């Protein structure tokens, strides 16, 4: 419980909600990306439609590694090991 309370406290202290419309990369901009891309989506995200985003990435950024996390909403936490593994593979 203490760790959860600390996380919540830090979140509310530093989180600045975006009130402006989310920027959207054009298809051409996505196509021009050459770096490795790792995208994690929650299958229950109510803010960003995962299926639409995944389809666009597959079409315009085919180098992207995409994972759809089950039983996960918009807040994706505790994924550091997964992300570090991806980053380490890029560096080898």
Report what the structure shows.
The chain is mostly helical. The protein has one domain. It has helices at 2-14, 27-32, 50-60, 80-91, and strands at residues 38-42, 65-69. 3% of the residues are buried. The mean pLDDT is 90.
Mean pLDDT: 90
Portion in strands: 5-15%
Shape: globular
Number of alpha- plus pi-helical segments: 4
Distance between the termini: 38 Å
Strand order of the largest sheet: 1-2
The stretches of 5 or more residues where confidence is low (pLDDT under 50) are none
Q: Helix coverage percent of residues?
A: 40-55%
SSE arrangement, N to C: HHEHEH
**Class inferred from helices and paired strands:** mainly alpha
Indicate the radius of gyration in whole angstroms.
15 Å
Total discrete domains:
1
Ordered list of secondary-structure elements with their pairings:
Blueprint: H1 2-14, H2 27-32, E1 38-42, H3 50-60, E2 65-69, H4 80-91
Parallel strand pairs: 1-2
